[in-house]
Amino acid sequence: MYADIIIDITHEKLDKVFQYSIPSHLEGMLKVGTEVVVPFGRGNKETKGYVTGFSREAGYDVAKIKPVAGIAKDSVAIESKLVALAAWMKEYYGGTMIQALKTVIPIKRTERVKEKRRIRLLLDEEAGKKALDVYLHKNQKARARLLAALLDEPEQEYELLTRKLNITRAVVRALEEQKIVALQSEQVFRNPVKHKVREREEVRLTDEQRHAIGVFWDDYRQGKRENYLVYGVTGSGKTEVYMEMIDRVLKEGGQAIVLIPEIALTYQTVMRFYGKFGDRVSILNSRMSQGERFDQMERVKAGEVDVMIGPRSALFTPFPNLGLIVIDEEHETTYKSEQVPRYHARETAMMRGKMEGASVVLGSATPSLEAFYGCKRGRIKMLELKNRATLRELPAVYVEDMRKEMKAGNRSILSDHLKELMEERLKKKEQIMLFLNRRGYAGFVSCRACGYVVKCPHCDVSLSAHKNGKMVCHYCGYEEPQVNLCPSCGSPYIGGFKAGTQQVEELVKRQFPSARALRMDMDTTKAKDGHEKILETFANEEADILIGTQMIVKGHDFPNVTLVGILAADMSLYSNDYRAGERTFQLLTQAAGRAGRGSGKGEVIIQTYSPQHYSIQMAAAQDYEGFYKEEMDYRELMGYPPVEQLLAVLMTGADESMLETAARYLKEFAQLADKDKELQIIGPASPNVAKVSDAYRRVLYLKGGDYKRLVEAKNRMEQYIEINKGFQSLRIQFDFNPMNVF
Ligand code: ADP
Ligand code: ZN
Ligand code: ZN
Questions:
Q1: Where does 408-529 have alpha helices with state H?
Q2: pLDDT digits (tens, 9 = 90+) for 554-593
Q3: 166: Cβ below 6 Å to ligand 1?
Q4: CA of 210 to the centre of ligand 1 (A)
Q5: Domain shared by 70 and 156, yes or no
Q6: Do 33 and 79 belong together in one domain?
Q7: Alpha carbon of 240 to ligand 1 centroid (Å)
Q8: What's the gap between Cα 479 and its chain centre?
């Protein structure tokens, strides 16, 4: 046996695993993750490294392989644990050990990253203007320039501003000494000027909340670390529950990680945690550079932080005494990585929890089928919050059948009922949100007169219109020519569904010329903080109508919104994806939850061509369990996750015919290797976007009842790909239980 060892895991050049032999006195003592001492380089310098795996055969000349010298004495246990987690991720999700290690361990940058600093005005407007007058009077132009800019915008990026205004360090120092400005590093969570920090009101937990915490705490105190799902509608007080759980874990000397989807990682949310835990809290976000992340992790190792909040990647925070991992909005698709290894944070958190003795608490109003199924099978304990914490009524939901609107001669994007309610809200000076569902939109073909959608006869997912005039199934490759008349009712109004936020905005402006409308989509949020700014404008009631994509569904609370219009609810329903129904239900439920967060009673209008679809019906009735039953029936019938397991093999290459051949070979190999015929192997098909920047793509799907069989198949394919030259020019990735079809 040989040990694969990686030297200096935090180094940027983390790109090679070295083989060492295992001397007899260490036999059986090394595990994946063990920190060892090995002779390295020409001088055989004693160097530390981590065991990342084992192999039976020597990769090169046996005579040149050196033996492991010993196990490191003062090893950093947390890194061993993360290396072991990486090894599990490599096995469970595919890819190389190096890719897995780079995912879990922050890499040090060789070049020094410059610290980004912010400059902040310490005076209020009045005092600031006085000081400005003084500078102008004394003809201190540079000081005046700086102060005027800060009066415009009290907090700005230091380097940028001083360069822009041509201000020297000395000028800044003078203002610092006068206590007019202060510099602070980006890491400090910022913006105390623009937002008022609300004092934390002590809440009296409801019986339901106390019960949920009690169940968790009884287990925890007895040393039982389990997985839980806090299942409760928006506003039921889940966040309060997490915070209480964390508080108790911290008091026992443990640490906690809180995963929140980036889009919901708003100032409001973060301040709630700050309010309770003060500066023991730290935050990660995707805008941080590698250096900044590395520094954060160093702070964690130094014991300065006990609670880390962040998106998916915060899961790998190196807490030595991790007691709890919370995953809020666990159903969010962003918890699945799009890079190799394509891990899911939910499963990986459960694995880390198991390895390190930490509990995992998932939370959602609309749990993923995976989590709910986990509860039904006893893998996850359900903690239910049935009521809203603050006795607010749920909104009234109406479903508008757009086929009827069409028959009645209304071809507009807005139904008559929605227009009517909008007018009424504008009169009452209440706010409106219009949500255009464009998630997962992939060019399905539907009839506006009867709602018919063209589907694959084999897979029961919708066909996608391609530019070549064909409609194609992205699972199995089935195709047929595009239709001009509806096969169901003969109407010519059949085609792709096209409407963008911009068109909606134009229409709204024409319909309601005196209303102030804001649009939030990819275009209007490109600028830094663009997203926050729009939400803030709307929160300050400087606009009446907010039009947007799924971005507007999360995060901020808008107490004055009493009407939510969901345009084109169908758009996500017929994406060519087995998760379409689930995604639609979640989006509609969340969007509906936006109405009536304040004192006013909310109303929600769902516009659809498929009012009979269970995702829409159950969302309108706010009936998760009803939805769950229907959706599980469908998954079971079709053999989709979570009932069965699915492995997508994505293949990319520059030469299409070679790619096609390779894909067929790989399929054949997978079929032959599956001796007991336990797997169903589908494809190769052309993905949604068959060609991206001159590279063609193909995808194979493997389906089976047992995840382990798929892992074995993946391992065999990885070996086959490695030894066959024909695959060398292709890029091949594995994706287990993918979030979308490719
Ligand atoms: P969720 O995370 O389930 O959406 P939150 O924890 O954000 O719910 O709670 C929603 C609102 O209700 C928040 O403003 C919160 O401060 C408040 N809240 C939660 N629990 C209580 C309670 N026990 N008493 C009073 N207010 C509460
Ligand atoms: Zn029709
Ligand atoms: Zn098909």
A1: 416-427, 501-511
A2: 656 788 899 999 987 777 777 667 888 999 999 888 888 8
A3: no
A4: 13
A5: no
A6: yes
A7: 6
A8: 32
Q: Kindly report which listed range (194-208, 628-642, 646-660) carries the lowest average pLDDT score.
A: 194-208
Question: What is the best residue among 202, 208, 239 to mutate for testing ligand 1's pocket, by most ligand atoms within 8 Å of CB?
Answer: 239
- Are 555 and 686 members of one domain? no
565, two tokens: 């219009």
Among residues of the chain, what percentage have pLDDT more than 70?
A: 90
Same domain, 212 and 311: yes
The structure tokens 């997203």 sit at 531
Closest listed residue to residue 389, CA positions, set 238, 266, 260 = 238
Instruction: Tell whether 192 is covered by a domain.
Output: no
For 365-469, where are the alpha helices, taking DSSP H only? 369-376, 402-407, 416-427
Q: Backbone phi, then psi, for 521, in 5-degree steps?
A: -150, -170
User: Quick one: pLDDT band at residue 303, thresholds 50, 70, 90?
Assistant: confident
Q: Do 516 and 556 have their domain in common? A: yes
Does residue 379 have a pLDDT over 60?
yes
Hey, what are 55's tokens? 């192999």
Q: Cis omega before residue 641 (within 30°)?
A: no
Per-residue DSSP letter, 192: T
- CB-ligand 1 contact for 236 (6 Å cutoff): yes
Q: From the CA atom positions of the chain, what is the Rg in Å? A: 28
Q: What is the CATH number of the domain that holds 557?
A: 3.40.50.300
Ligand 1, atom 20, lies closest to the CA of 237
Beta strands 470-472 and 464-465 are: antiparallel
What separation in Å is there between the alpha carbon of 495 and the centre of ligand 2?
10
Total domains in the chain come to 5
Contact (Cβ atoms closer than 8 angstroms) between residue 302 and residue 280: no
Domain that holds residue 79: 2-104
The closest ligand to the CA of 494 turns out to be 2
Going by CA atoms, what residue is nearest to atom 10 of ligand 1?
235
Is the C-beta atom of 240 inside 6 A of ligand 1? yes
CB of 232 closer than 6 angstroms to any ligand 1 atom: yes
For residue 493, what are the contacts with CB-CB under 8 A and spacing of at least 6? 406, 447, 448, 449, 486
pLDDT tens by residue, 180-214: 998 876 544 333 233 334 456 678 999 999 999 99
**Residue whose CA is closest, atom 5 of ligand 1?**
237
Sequence ranges of the binding site for Zn(2+): 447, 450, 456, 459, 473, 476, 486, 489
Least confident of 120-129, 366-375, 470-479, 714-723: 470-479
| Residue 476 in domain | no
